[in-house]
Amino acid sequence: MANPTITPGPASAAAVNKRIRRGSIEPIVFNTLNAIFMIVLVIVTLYPFLNTIVVSLNAGNDTIRGGIYLWPREFTWQNYKAVFASGTIYNAFWISVARTVLSTVLNLFLTTMLAYTLSRREYVFRKPITLIFILTMYFNAGLIPGYFLMKELHLINTFWVYVIPSMISAFNMIVIRTYIGTIPESLIESARIDGAGEFKIFIRIIFPLCKPVLATIALFVAVGAWNSWFDAFIYTSSRQELSTLQYELMKLLSSSMNANNNPAVAAGAGMTREAAASMVTPLSIRAAVTVVASVPILLVYPFMQKYFVVGLNVGSVKE
């Protein structure tokens, strides 16, 4: 017996049409609100940096009046001239580049090697050594014992005081070890069957497969090394040739507070008398210093962006 065809009545047809219209409108509303939200988020995120660039390109006397937003009212390069007036800043730049590159390379290689060792279940001392490293994340001896340790190691007033203390990171080791745990054990066992030793397995298999998390860690280490100035203040302040860019910029920013009223202070910071006279406010110099310190490290990020998101998801999915 054939099933009778049910013809919807006027009321049910109206309900169906209403659901269809609602189903077609909802994506449009969602996409519109989502686009508005993302645009607002981009503006809120980029505005502080854009405003800093604008302030750095605006005359200091005019900056005091306020109202500088997205375009300089009185364009000038004088703030940057004051920053680069000191000849020491160029040498400090290369010192910062050298310490950033060496610290990043050594930290990645040695920390990954340590993480691979502590990820091996057959390693007897895996747990106690991991515990020791974790404790260093929560407890330290303090500034004065740390200084005496560097002195006993003959690292004071040497370039290597920037590099050696940062060669191993407990937090980075845990992150990399977690990522190594996601690598199939069958790859390592196959390499061992083929006669590969542990170091060869590390170089040929582990290190290449850890590229996403290593790119993320490299960005963190590089930013930390580039922005560091306190170690230069503590350990190498008596040797001007070992001063870092951030330390020189910090000294410039401190001296700019009194540069207008006391040209001798500006001369002590390496600035000319003319540059000091035109440095009207610490606000404009602070903006120029921020841009000079930020741009080099920002240029590195686009090359690591494709690995950055993958690396941040480390350990989120396991087989």
Description:
Residues 93-304 form the ABC transmembrane type-1 domain. This is Carbohydrate ABC transporter permease. Belongs to the binding-protein-dependent transport system permease family. There is one protein chain. This protein has 319 residues and is mainly α. Among the domains are: 11-63; 87-255, MetI-like (MetI-like fold), CATH 1.10.3720.10. It contains 16 helices and no strands. α4 runs antiparallel to α10 (211-227). It is flat, with a radius of gyration of 29 Å. The two termini are 54 Å apart.
Quick summary of this structure?
The protein has 319 residues and is mostly helical.
Q: Topology of this structure?
A:
Elements: H1 10-56, H2 60-63, H3 78-83, H4 88-119, H5 126-136, H6 143-152, H7 170-180, H8 185-193, H9 198-209, H10 211-227, H11 230-235, H12 245-255, H13 263-268, H14 273-278, H15 282-298, H16 301-312
Helix pairs in contact: 1-15, 4-7, 4-10, 4-12, 10-16, 12-15
Radius of gyration: 29 Å
Class inferred from helices and paired strands: mainly alpha
The major pleated sheet works out as:
none
Spell out the CATH superfamily of the domain at 87-255: MetI-like
Report the CATH topology name of the domain at 87-255. Answer: MetI-like fold
End-to-end Cα distance, whole Å, is 54 Å
Give the overall shape, derived from the CA principal axes: flat
Helix content: 55-70%
Low-confidence stretches: 263-269, 315-319
Give average pLDDT, whole number. Answer: 81
CATH architecture label name of the domain at 87-255 = Orthogonal Bundle
Tally of separate helices: 16
CATH class of the domain at 87-255: Mainly Alpha
Order of helices and strands: HHHHHHHHHHHHHHHH
Transmembrane segments: 28-50, 93-116, 128-148, 160-180, 201-226, 283-303
InterPro entries: MetI-like, MetI-like_sf
Domain ABC transmembrane type-1: 93-304
Organism: Paenibacillus lutimineralis
